[in-house]
Amino acid sequence: MKDRIALQLGPLSDYLETELARRCPVTRWYDMDDAGRRDWLNDHADAVDLVVTGGQTGCPDDLIAALPSLRLIAIHGVGYDKVNVPMVHQRGIYVSTTPDVLTDDVADLAVGLTIGLLRGLPRADRFVRDGRWTGGGFPLGRRVSGRRFGIVGLGRIGRAIADRLHGFGGVAYHGRTAKDAPYRFEPDLRALAQTSDILLLACAANAQTYHLIDADILGALGPQGYLVNVARGSVVDETALIAALEHGGIAGAALDVFADEPSVPDALISSPLTHLTPHIASATIETRMAMADMVLANIDALIAGRQPPTALAQP
Ligand code: 8YV
Q1: What confidence score (pLDDT) does residue 89 get?
Q2: Which ligand 1 atom lies nearest to the CA of residue 79?
Q3: Which residues line ligand 1 (CB under 6 A)?
Q4: Alpha-carbon distance 157 to 163, whole Å?
């Protein structure tokens, strides 16, 4: 039987890389240039039955098409927006993700970003470090408790955010359907934005949610409203967001995800109204270990000829 080769599309933790290498030969796709990739595929394409990738990296269609023996795309993450799932499923290829284990961390970061944004924590920290405290007090922030929180997408992560923010104030949510949850469902996103002080994005990225938050929704959120995004950059029209921040259309935005990671528009970096983090919502030692173990469990199942345990359902 031919050797299985795993194609690794982006950097992974040392632990996951070590464990992966114990199971099969691994090739780092992201270390090769275009010519190197072409040559490598000429010699090895047929031997690749596994792709390991991150949620924000996914796997491009042309690479999938170039791998005739591919059997599993193991995503180290919960988002599968960068994988053409219908195309992959049509070929009987599994796509696995790492659900549940990252839910709490992502929800924790959403709350942290909310507090950081309204209370100005990044700037307050810099204020102390720069020795400016002796020259006077730090400007007042805005209160978090008692606010109206609007959550877009009440899936696992949205629900965990809602359960945490319920301790701070009123929670309402928008999604395709009402969920069995003790929070007010708002079928109209514009109305949710209008009646929320803080709009938090926790929906999946797909064609329906692409630029869901546009100039109109930001206008409904209004000059006193804040946006928090731990979903995907594609959910927000970044140009409209920048315009809203520049013209006082909204009060501020906390963003863990961006349209074109890892590049972040200068206008967001230089804005005094933003709180930015580098896509770290699931990035804790504990969660990344659990995510790695879940990726390995899916690979082990494939090797043993079983269905990967957290494979997306095939039609
Ligand atoms: C990770 C993510 O940062 O779960 C996702 O979809 O985007 C994040 O948890 C990423 O997948 C790390 O590889």
Answers
A1: 97
A2: 6
A3: 54-56, 76-79, 102, 279, 282
A4: 10
pTM of structure = 0.96
Catalytic amino acids?
232, 261, 279
CA–centroid distance, 276 to ligand 1, in Å, is: 17
Nearest Cα to Cα of residue 98 among 296, 291, 299, 313: 291
pLDDT for the residue 4: 80
Please tell me the distance between residue 9's alpha carbon and the centre of ligand 1 in angstroms: 13
Amino acid letter for position 39 = D
Residue nearest to atom 6 of ligand 1 (CA): 79
Evaluate whether 214 touches 237 at the Cβ level (below 8 Å).
yes
Alpha-carbon span 243 to 291, nearest angstrom: 37
What is the average pLDDT across 281-298? 98
> How crowded is residue 139: how many other Cβ atoms within 10 Å of its Cβ?
9
| Token reading at 166 | 């319920």
Domains and CATH numbers, the chain: 5-99+286-303 (3.40.50.720), 103-276 (3.40.50.720)
List Cα–Cα distances, 57 to 30, 78, 151, in angstroms: 10, 12, 25
